Task: inverse folding
């Protein structure tokens, strides 16, 4: 089963349908939280990884609901190797979407809630046993073999914030912790993880989007920004200061456009325009009426969150990607929960 952002407002029937069919289930980035963390049938948002793709490729039937089947969810590494070999059943409220980029063998034009609830009703008294649990566990173990220390450290950081700050919403820009979280972080509920680059990615959008999320939800919000991306829109901090919003801006500092730099290095390309001048963010934050903390310790972060999320000003938490405490956290993080 492939659940997309079109299912974000579907109630618990989404979980029930997966259980009735006994199907390994994937969630797009915008569908995070549709199944709870640790659900035995959930493979999270790992459909771009080889182990996740293998589950989909070998399936006789694939049921895709409310998902565009787009690159940034299913082919995030852009190698063109995402394939559906079995019968594809698609349910969507947009007739055109049912035929692109993968043409449905069986196309159902429907509201997601109506279709999912209807399927649950029809399947309630039927028994399926596809031995999904063993296949899901096998895929999970294969995924964990490829987890790196950097990936683990970033996800440990996100999980700590998720578990410490009740009802927190993450709003992500184009930056390394967001890419890691897209794959590795399980949301506690829907509409708690937003990444602006599920489509065309724009540097800097994450900060003003986070301000909007905080105004619209009246919930705690963490804006995930890189030291390069934030320079596009850092002036928006003064808007958050004027509104007295206790917005947490988690600033990931890798001294430039780290992800683009890595891509160039791996491709043997000349490094042009990626090792940029990084400003001193402490006086810069003060100039915009925001607070500042240089986070170097797990307990320091926990203590800061308790006070700053109840304050009356935005605050930057600057974290350097080489900090030792991230490696320590990486050693204890667990996945799929």
Result:
């Amino acid at each position: 089963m492939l659940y997309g952002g079109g299912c974000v407002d579907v109630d618990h029937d989404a979980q029930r349908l997966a259980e009735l069919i006994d199907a390994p289930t994937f969630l797009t980035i915008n569908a995070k939280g549709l199944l709870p963390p640790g659900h035995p049938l959930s493979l999270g948002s790992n459909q771009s990884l080889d182990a996740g793709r293998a589950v989909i490729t070998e399936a006789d039937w694939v049921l895709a609901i409310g998902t565009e089947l787009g690159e940034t969810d299913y082919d995030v590494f852009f190698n063109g190797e995402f394939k559906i070999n079995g019968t594809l059943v698609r349910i969507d409220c947009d007739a055109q979407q049912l035929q692109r980029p993968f043409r449905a063998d069986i196309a159902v034009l429907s509201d997601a809630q109506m279709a999912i609830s209807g399927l649950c009703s029809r399947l309630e008294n039927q028994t399926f046993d596809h031995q999904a649990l063993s296949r899901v566990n096998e895929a999970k173990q294969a995924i964990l073999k490829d987890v790196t220390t950097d990936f683990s450290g970033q996800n440990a950081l996100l999980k700590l914030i998720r578990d410490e700050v009740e009802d927190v919403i993450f709003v992500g820009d184009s930056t390394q912790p967001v890419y890691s979280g897209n794959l590795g972080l399980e949301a506690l509920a829907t509409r708690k993880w937003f990444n602006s680059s599920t489509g065309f990615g724009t540097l800097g959008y994450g900060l003003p989007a986070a301000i909007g999320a905080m105004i619209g939800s009246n919930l705690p919000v963490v804006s995930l920004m890189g030291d390069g991306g934030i320079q596009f829109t850092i002036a928006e901090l003064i808007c958050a200061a004027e509104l007295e919003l206790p917005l947490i801006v988690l600033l990931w500092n890798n001294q430039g456009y780290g992800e683009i730099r890595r891509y160039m290095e791996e491709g043997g390309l000349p490094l042009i325009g990626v090792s940029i001048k990084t400003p001193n963010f402490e006086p810069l934050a003060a100039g915009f009426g925001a607070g500042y903390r240089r986070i170097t310790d797990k307990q320091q972060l926990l203590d800061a969150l308790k006070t700053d999320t109840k304050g009356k000003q935005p605050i930057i938490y600057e974290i350097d990607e080489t900090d030792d405490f991230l490696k320590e956290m990486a050693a204890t993080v667990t996945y799929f929960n």
Residues 66 and 92 are 5 Å apart (CA to CA). The chain has a mean pLDDT of 94. The first helix runs from residue 13 to 21. The first strand starts at residue 2 and ends at 3.
